[in-house]
Amino acid sequence: MALIEVSLLRIRLMLAVLVLGLFVLSAEARVRHYKWEVKYEYKSPDCFKKLVIAINGRTPGPTILAQQNDTIIVELKNSLLTENVAIHWHGIRQIGTPWFDGTEGVTQCPILPGDTFVYRFVVDRPGTYLYHAHYGMQREAGLYGSIRVTLPDGVPEPFPYNYDRSIILNDWYHKSTYEQATGLSSIPFTWVGEPQSLLIQGRGRFNCNTPGIEAGVCNATLPECSPYVLTVIPGKTYRLRISSLTALSALSFEIEGHNMTVVEADGHYVQPFDVKNLFIYSGETYSVLVKTDQDPSRNYWASVKVVSRNSTTPNGLAIFNYYPNHPRKSPPTIPPTGPMWDAVEPRRAQGLAIKARQGFIHPPPPISDRLLVFLNTQNRVNGYVRWSVNNVSFNLPHTPYLIALKENLTHLLDQTPPPDGYDFVNYDIFSVAKNVNATTSDNIYRLQFNTTVDIILQNANTMNPNNSETHPWHLHGHDFWVLGYGKGKFDLYNDPKNYNLVNPIMKNTVAVQPYGWTALRFVANNPGVWAFHCHIESHFAMGMGVVFEEGIEKVGKLPTSIMGCGATKGIPRP
Amino acid sequence: MALIEVSLLRIRLMLAVLVLGLFVLSAEARVRHYKWEVKYEYKSPDCFKKLVIAINGRTPGPTILAQQNDTIIVELKNSLLTENVAIHWHGIRQIGTPWFDGTEGVTQCPILPGDTFVYRFVVDRPGTYLYHAHYGMQREAGLYGSIRVTLPDGVPEPFPYNYDRSIILNDWYHKSTYEQATGLSSIPFTWVGEPQSLLIQGRGRFNCNTPGIEAGVCNATLPECSPYVLTVIPGKTYRLRISSLTALSALSFEIEGHNMTVVEADGHYVQPFDVKNLFIYSGETYSVLVKTDQDPSRNYWASVKVVSRNSTTPNGLAIFNYYPNHPRKSPPTIPPTGPMWDAVEPRRAQGLAIKARQGFIHPPPPISDRLLVFLNTQNRVNGYVRWSVNNVSFNLPHTPYLIALKENLTHLLDQTPPPDGYDFVNYDIFSVAKNVNATTSDNIYRLQFNTTVDIILQNANTMNPNNSETHPWHLHGHDFWVLGYGKGKFDLYNDPKNYNLVNPIMKNTVAVQPYGWTALRFVANNPGVWAFHCHIESHFAMGMGVVFEEGIEKVGKLPTSIMGCGATKGIPRP
């Protein structure tokens, strides 16, 4: 993979040399070709040995580095023995290639063991993106990585910096995804509990002296689980691309003694503002600028902490290493303890502070054509615990939506339109619902092409008294404007008056705070079928999502490679 | 499932009552309809809790009870989250339905998560059969059960007995199939070691005081792992249908103080002979008659032991409970220790003793049309440890053989014919091969329809000095005659002179002893594509198998349900 890329680069450089500088370096987009093999391997990212799904032997997988408008080709070989796979390119809108969104059951059939599936798509916007498994709960098994899309040669970023670094944050369970999923789909429901550790760029540290663990599986001396070290040169500005792919946890990230200036969120420039700690939810990406302007004679802690849940997961630590101090030299201080886990206000405040950067504002349409209010609730369906949207728990169809709709196989789907809202007047979002029962369905929201859609994500009490959780929602195929956040029940008449229609940030993932609401707007202008769901792995697996169709008639001929399941088994038509 | 069967029976009985005995009970074949759901569940078959693949919550799965010529319909719902499945009906020849043999990659594409696949086939011969997963190493995860096919009403067995009981023997690993498979396909090769316990009808007993195991996973007080109890009435004759589906182990089974009379092997009547202990290899089934003629005031041990390997796996124990003694009353004696693990001679002697029963002899064709000599060796391919036949290590194609051949997609397969033999003159079966390298291939033996084929399974030294293992080979779609066994290298000129052509037993599974050979004959008269492979789960996964095609042009229209992988993805032709 790296070899091919280097060769392409070399050819390009040779060509550049050949023309002896008569022409400037071509601004033409390149093709970046990756060959990835997905396979189970034993890894000890937090010193505890377990099977992970690795790409080319690594978790996180290789970073995709590209320039705006490059074409990415990933030849993905599934070398799992009995298990399928699919990879989603998180934040990439897949304009013109909705079949390569990698969302199993929505845009493609799963990739079978032994098969090689070729993803091919354009990264049309610069920014910080992610990729990860979008099948079952495989993301939790370690199948994820970074995509960094830079500006074309010669185009400057609107903020100066000296170095560019990517850091993925994650939480980490010792139980396999099978064990977790079995618990979720059992009666009684069995919850895996809090993650055992937090990983910073794939490294964490579990206490191997924890009583009761199997002999020989935990080894604190492995270099693999030594803390991640970010070595910096004093007096410089670092762009840190911080992203989160946690299974469950909302996080706070900080670097001891250093402020961070937020400049990018989900691929969009942010009007800069400073934070001491950055709150980040699963599926979000941020760029922050950090000045290495502190005492250079020592190292500093970088620390990550779970917020929003009273978690038993210990804070994750990395070393912010001022060169030339030894990278393993412990900072002389006690690591930062981070913010209070249950303080919602600072988190809401950060959300409100994120606005589009002056000069880079994409103004939203002033009004919307359709309003969808999505009540997020925890429910029971046939005795199983599920999550629902307006009391419908999401279920994937046998034939992926994109194929069923494009090939006029709509009879394969539940054709009842899902509800556009809930019982606003009578539903008490602050209590356990009187009737927690919900239904499951594979029905779909069909949006008129090019219309503007508003979504209110309304949070509520779970099935436990006095409990409401944080849900980061992620939209495929689009960026949306974040128009507002609020506490309590969304007021259809008054709350829209406070929408930010001037400089709202565009994002692909946004959090809904406990007992709160978040308002979004997007334009349904990307022909295809797109998932919109809670990015917490278990919540989506338990039905917390919906699917949108828009402009299906404008979708091009579907590649046969995405077929093979449901109604698409057979000798293909010539 | 059981309900449906009972209802069918009830309807039938009601009809019988209705006609007031004017007619004898109809000899017409019935349809037996099963609905099975395959799902991961936590079980503790040997007191150690692990995830197993259960059918309707059980491992072993429900027993299929049928009469000769009944049609079995199994609606199999795959409720695994990300993992496919396929079930093989072991010993059922699938005459006219080769697409329902359940051999993933050979006769069908895997069944995807969420899908329901309908197997429909006729059990045309009475006898003791099995079913089990035939995909990856899922059989080891607990996906297996019994098929008992009885004679039509009024047709007596050639031996009298009072009661009929089924007992499946198995070995049991605590590591998941993922963990095992990851080790097998790693460099360096990592072997999981010997199984932790032996199961008798799904029950075993691991010592929970073993040091180093994770806290809370082992519980010796669970009723689930109390010993299997076979309650018998004194003075009766029991038919015990003993079968083995071990992952690895060759076994010896005995009931303290009771001889066993062998009367059936793999669905064929055996000229009765008595044994104190029964040797049984993975994939074999036997019926033995046991007389409950011992002191009825006590219970007896039934015991199973690993032979052929110097195993660390402790013997498995069950209680042969003479009614009305308490079923949990321990026998007053020390359990039998079983035969020496390394005594090959008694095992060879049992093989030679098994002959077709007088009056039920199917004489083999006196000569064969084609001779295949299959050298079984352990090899390396690209640094990976593999097993091979004539230095070709078996690899499944992307499009299952049956589909590729029937639909004229032969270009998808390696078309080089695999070798009919090996270098008989120079190959030293008693030493580590000088060149252990092999190739992998998905090529196939194409047999002329209705011809008679002889196969010599030739064992050899593994890659370790002075080591040769036992391999039970299983043929799909056929029964074969066992013509002979021998020690050392098969002599093409002299050994055939000693073949038993008079009353050889027919079987579907037979063992090849260390440094020995076994000679088989079968008639290629079942249109389809059929696997022939070592029944040790890891050996087949590592390439120890071949595939036969015969009469592909006589195979009927393939059902679309078996497609969806390789070249069979797409909107099907109308």
UniProtKB/TrEMBL annotation, chains A, B:
Q: What Gene Ontology terms describe where this protein resides (cellular component)?
A: extracellular region
Keywords for this protein: Copper, Disulfide bond, Glycoprotein, Metal-binding, Oxidoreductase, Repeat, Secreted, Signal
Taxonomically, which superkingdom?
Answer: Eukaryota
Cofactor entry: Cu cation
* Segment forming the signal sequence: 1-29
Q: Which reaction does it catalyse?
A: 4 L-ascorbate + O2 = 4 monodehydro-L-ascorbate radical + 2 H2O
Q: Which InterPro entries match?
A: Cu-oxidase-like_N, Cu-oxidase_2nd, Cu-oxidase_C, Cu-oxidase_fam, Cu_oxidase_CS, Cu_oxidase_Cu_BS, Cupredoxin, CuRO_1_AAO
Name any one Pfam family assigned in the record: Cu-oxidase_3
The catalytic activity of this protein is classed by the Enzyme Commission as 1.10.3.3
Q: How does it assemble?
A: Dimer.
- Give the protein family: Belongs to the multicopper oxidase family.
Could you identify this protein by its name?
Answer: L-ascorbate oxidase
What is the organism lineage in this UniProt record?
A: Eukaryota, Viridiplantae, Streptophyta, Embryophyta, Tracheophyta
